[in-house]
UniProtKB/TrEMBL annotation:
GO molecular function term, any single one: cysteine-type endopeptidase activity
Enzyme Commission (EC) number: 3.4.19.12
Pfam families in UniProt: DUSP (PF06337), ubiquitin (PF00240), UCH (PF00443)
Protein name per its UniProtKB record: Ubiquitin carboxyl-terminal hydrolase 48
Annotated DUSP domain residues: 726-837
Basic residues composition bias: residue spans: 400-410
Gene: LOC110979054
Residue ranges with Basic and acidic residues bias: 627-637, 892-910
Domain USP: 89-424
Catalytic function, reaction form: Thiol-dependent hydrolysis of ester, thioester, amide, peptide and isopeptide bonds formed by the C-terminal Gly of ubiquitin (a 76-residue protein attached to proteins as an intracellular targeting signal)
Gene Ontology CC, one term: nucleus
InterPro entries associated with the record: DUSP-like_sf, Papain-like_cys_pep_sf, Pep_USP48, Pept_C19_DUSP, Peptidase_C19, Peptidase_C19_UCH, Ubiquitin-like_dom, Ubiquitin-like_domsf
Region annotation (Disordered) ranges: 385-410, 627-647, 890-911
Species of the source: Acanthaster planci (Crown-of-thorns starfish)
Residue ranges of every copy of the Ubiquitin-like domain listed in the record: 944-1007
Length: 1037
């Protein structure tokens, strides 16, 4: 198949020999490419845009073959949501409720706890009204609906055991507790609060197995034993516990954490113990002594610790090793008790920080381990627990430590935060418990209202399965019908020879053939294919396809839209206009080559010629084409551009002013301009060809006289320039030291007794004039007005030399001042001199000035500068990250930067204020423009931080965290040699001013997780409310 360029050339090749007036219907059909052969299948890799008869590659390939039924629906097989045989049921994650799901799965798989919950009855619950119904509201004809925490938990356990769903929705319990499903909370705190609330609620039950289930299953007892070192007397204070909170920081094994929990604590010094036996404070030792352990021992590993410095929680990513069988005999005073425990559950937190991640539970049930990951429940192959994959999901960072060596019968994890150990029963008790639990956990043992809810859930699920299956079948039926319809219509698209046809947009056909079965096809829109004469634009032929009128009628009736473009919509006027433009471009190409070749060399002397503007000569071809643009602003395509034609401009400003050819040669008086740089002499042959395109252009032969008025103006400007050069030379000679800024008056030199103040902006502009007198205008006056305040006094102290004064004025010698007063108009004279009379009378020599310095304005300016350094908003400070051994160097640099930055605000001349509250004294426009730059120079490892004086040190650390990806608790900040430690202090109170430099030392390696720092920032920006406002604290519903 010919290429697009070949097709474009072939369809308009006839224009070379045909004038616009001779265009016929045959030429029009050639332009619209009606006679091109249609492409056959498997001959085109993609659709031929240049061939309106090519209907291949529009997306029809998929429709012309067999399509599987799965193509017609997005609904998966609903039976995939059915619970597999001999599998457990998962729990839906409602957003961020995975921490709730893990505990629910652990509690559900405690058979004794589950059996007790099945025996709970709503009629016997006497808890708060918010969590319970009256007797009449639980057994109405409408059925039972749980409204309290125990009722929801009971139903949840029943569905987890007897539902035919793959997973169930815990929304009822979550909503009853008032939990925010989108907010991830502290899992350990949830466990404690939920157990406490459940124990309180169950205490109202009359059945002892239900009422005391929490105590019987999870409650143990230990005592705080304090022994006096003086008399040996011991006191015991018993205490109940439901779980052991063990510190893992600095420990590798669970036994080490247990040892720390039970180790002796020495009470001495200010922390002495008051002994009842000695009747005085004495040194003592205190320890925790385990007395009684529960059947289910919950061990909380304190993996999330509170950082007092940052006010946020921090996750410890260190490995801890724990055994499968835990013998607690060494930790108990009685050795005859059953104290051997087996590991039955491990709760995992995936994620680098305490404010994000995911919770997963591993539970051992029926001799095998199962992983409960919200909706997904996986039976772990073999009989051993495999936690290595959980830790591998989180990339190992430099702070997470090395995995300990594997020990048989032990496991290690850096993500485990809770371990559940169940006491190993004796053989007799084990047989009795299995038989009793098998009876109590059967479906028949459930109360009637609970059985009804389970059956109702099953029926709803089966109904949903049937509904989804019906929806799948309807989608398949609809898809098959659409497949047949599109196949039939596509085969009708090619028009037969001699039959009627219509034009349709290619993009719409692609959309029609590629649109999803569930998405409606847009109406046909041919509006942008219409030319200004109301027909099909021949320039849009690459965007359309020619189809049979029968197929077009069916498509328009089904999808609406329009306008319809039939075979009579071919535009003769557009074809003739295009023919004319192409012939014009052909002539332009030929003339452009001739003009370019002929004007490369200068015209030989003696030969006649014409003046042509250089800009017009570069742009004449474009000017012709722009003039020939159609009225609607459609830009014609320029083809076969001469490669030798230079279309660039080295005088863009002049060319932008060229409206007509040779317009730049006209002076304001409509004569020939005197500027020779704007024109070029070209041969007569060149002018004649150009004149054909621009018959109304200004015509100047080589003998044309220049405009006399412009010549007179140029002569006058030349004379003025000479005068300015002479003036600049005289002033430079008279004030050469002032011009070169050398040998200036300085009060450090004792021989200097008198000087005058001259505004710095005046001197800068005067030097520019002297340096380039033809480019800059001469000055006529010395403007010292902004050196005088409203009290008609000098706004500076004489002799003060700093960056502010050096930007405002300079000192000149008396003889220089005399020259300035003779040659310039001076508004205010400021004389500074030594008080010679004081030297003669024995008093210290001081500097005086006329007029006198205004101390009132000077003090006001200094006060304002000091306030602006202390109270600021949106100011820049610089944080420099250094290594530890460079701290001393950084602290020294801090002092220098602080001194340099103390004048940042004072540099601004706009701060001068009047004491009476009137507006500020401002410099003139040229005064502002000549201020010197005093920008801070950054060094390597330094970044800008935008702060306000009211920001606290904690807020600054958060900004530093974003700049350097270093968590606040890993930052050590120094300013002026002092470490910044008080997080609640404001930057103003710490003496931090705009422009100062603070050094940052990183205490620990940074986290490798790029999202971890953002999570800490979000947590530190919002006060942590925990479970405030939920039912866990008694205020939920």
């Amino acid at each position: 198949m010919p290429t697009k360029v070949q097709l474009d050339k072939a369809s308009w090749q006839w224009t070379d020999t045909t004038s616009p007036d001779d265009v016929t219907a045959e030429h029009v059909e050639l332009a619209y490419r009606i006679g091109l052969p249609a492409c056959q299948h498997n001959t085109c890799r993609q659709n031929c845009k240049g061939n309106p008869n090519c209907l291949v590659g529009l997306g029809e390939k998929e429709w012309l073959c067999d399509i599987k039924d799965e193509r017609w629906h997005e609904v998966e097989d609903p039976n995939l949501e059915r619970r597999a045989e001999d599998s457990f049921v998962g729990l839906k994650n409602l957003g961020a409720t995975c921490y709730v799901n893990t505990f629910l799965q652990v509690w559900f798989h405690n058979h004794s706890f589950r059996a007790a919950m099945y025996k709970w009855r709503p009629l016997r619950c006497q808890a708060t009204d918010k969590h319970n119904q009256s007797e009449s509201s639980t057994t109405k004809e409408g059925g039972y609906t749980p409204t309290c925490i125990c009722g929801h938990l009971q139903l949840l356990f029943a569905l987890l055991q007897f539902s035919n769903r793959r997973y169930i929705d815990p929304s009822g319990l979550v909503n009853c507790l008032g939990l925010d499903a989108a907010l991830q909370q502290d899992a350990q705190e949830f466990s404690k609060l939920f157990m406490s609330l459940l124990e309180e609620t169950l205490s109202q039950q009359t059945h002892p197995e239900v009422r005391d289930v929490i105590q019987q299953q999870f409650r143990g007892q230990y005592a705080y034993v304090t022994r006096c070192n003086n008399c040996g007397h011991s006191s015991r204070q018993p205490s109940k516990f439901y779980e052991l909170d063990l510190n893992i920081k600095g420990h590798r094994e669970l036994s080490e954490s247990l040892g720390e929990f039970l180790q002796d604590e020495h009470l001495d010094g200010a922390n002495q113990y008051f002994c009842d036996n000695c009747r005085s404070k004495q040194d003592a030792t205190r320890r925790i002594q385990l007395q009684q352990l529960p059947p289910v021992l919950n061990i909380q590993l304190l993996r999330f610790v509170f950082d007092r410095q940052t006010g946020t929680k921090k996750k410890l990513n260190s490995f801890i090793q724990f055994p499968e069988v835990l013998d607690m005999t060494p930790y108990l005073p009685r050795k005859d008790a059953e104290t051997v425990y087996e590991l039955t559950a491990v709760l995992i937190h995936r994620g680098p920080t305490a404010y994000s991640g995911h919770y997963v539970a591993h539970v051992r049930q029926e001799g095998a381990w199962h992983k409960f990951n919200d909706e997904e429940v996986e039976r772990i192959e073999g009989r051993n627990l495999k936690l290595g994959s959980e830790d591998d999901l989180q990339g190992g960072g430099p702070k997470q430590g090395k995995r300990p060596k594997h020990v048989k019968g032990h496991h290690a994890s850096k993500n485990a935060y809770m371990l559940v150990y169940t006491r190993r029963p004796s053989q007799e008790n084990q047989a009795d418990n299995s038989e009793r639990q098998g009876i109590s956990l059967s479906e028949d043992s459930l109360p009637g209202y609970l059985q009804d809810l389970v059956r109702q859930d099953r029926a709803q699920f089966e109904e949903w399965v049937q509904e989804m299956a019906g929806m799948r079948q309807r989608s398949i039926t609809s898809g098959r019908a659409r497949h047949a319809e599109i196949t039939r219509l596509y085969l009708m698209l090619p028009p037969k020879p001699g039959s009627r046809y219509e034009w349709l947009k290619s993009d719409w056909l692609k959309q029609w053939l590629n649109v999803d079965s569930n998405t409606a096809c847009k109406p046909i829109d041919n509006s942008d294919l219409i030319c200004r004469h109301g027909n099909l634009d021949p320039d849009k032929i690459q965007q359309v396809k020619r189809i049979s009128q029968e197929a077009a009628g069916i498509l328009h009736s089904k999808y609406d839209g329009g306008p319809r473009l039939s075979g009579t919509s071919l535009c003769l006027k557009c074809v003739r206009e295009r023919c004319r433009m192409m012939r014009l471009k052909s002539n332009l190409n030929e003339d452009s080559k001739f003009v370019t070749t002929t004007t490369k060399n200068k015209l030989e002397p003696g030969l006649p010629g014409y003046w042509v503007g250089k800009a017009s000569l570069r742009q004449w071809r474009k000017m012709v084409l722009d003039r020939e643009k159609p009225s609607e602003g459609k830009e014609p395509e320029v083809a076969n551009c001469d490669a030798g034609q230079d279309m660039t401009s080295d005088q863009p400003n002049v060319e932008s002013m060229v409206g007509t050819f040779n317009a730049e040669l006209l002076c304001p008086h409509n004569g020939l301009s005197t500027d020779e740089t704007l024109r070029k002499l070209v041969p007569v042959a060149v002018w004649e060809r150009l004149h054909v395109y621009f018959p109304d252009a200004p015509k100047f032969n080589q003998d044309q006289e220049l405009c006399r008025a412009c010549q007179h103006r140029d002569e006058q400007q030349e004379q003025d320039g000479m005068l300015r050069v002479m003036m600049a030379a005289d002033q430079k000679a008279a004030l050469h030291q002032l011009f070169n800024d050398r040998h200036r008056p300085s009060w450090e030199k004792k021989e200097v007794t008198e000087a005058y103040a001259v505004s710095r902006p005046f001197l800068e502009q005067w030097r520019e004039f002297v340096r380039q007198p033809l480019k800059h205008a001469p000055l006529s006056e010395v403007n010292n007005a902004f050196l005088i305040c409203n009290h008609n006094r000098f706004v500076f102290e004489p002799g003060t030399v700093d960056e502010v004064t050096s930007n405002m004025y300079s000192l000149v010698w008396p003889h220089e001042w005399e020259f300035l007063t003779k040659n310039f108009t001076v508004d205010f004279a400021v004389r500074i001199f030594r008080d010679q009379e004081a030297s003669e009378n024995g008093r210290p020599v001081t500097l005086e000035c006329q007029p006198e310095s205004c101390m009132e304005c000077i003090m006001a300016r200094q006060t304002q500068a000091r306030l602006e350094r202390q109270e600021y908003s949106g100011a820049r400070i610089y944080v420099r990250k250094i290594v530890t051994e460079l701290d001393s160097v950084g602290h020294t640099q801090d002092e220098e930067d602080r001194k340099r930055s103390s004048h940042d605000t004072a540099r601004d001349p706009d701060f001068f204020q009047q004491v009476n509250g009137s507006k500020k004294i401002r410099l003139s426009s040229y005064a502002d423009s000549t201020r010197r730059s005093s920008r801070h120079r950054k060094v390597r490892g330094e970044k800008e931080v935008i702060v306000s004086s009211g920001n606290t040190l904690k807020e600054l650390k958060i900004k530093v965290m974003h700049a350097f990806s270093v968590a606040p608790f890993d930052q050590t900040l120094h300013f002026c040699g002092q470490q910044l430690t008080d997080n609640e202090s404001t930057l103003s109170s710490l003496g931090i001013e705009p422009g100062c430099v603070i050094t940052l030392t990183v205490d620990m390696p940074q986290s490798e997780d790029p999202f971890a720092v953002d999570e800490i920032f979000q947590a530190s920006s919002v006060p942590e409310a925990g479970f405030k406002g939920t039912g866990l604290l008694g205020s939920g519903t």
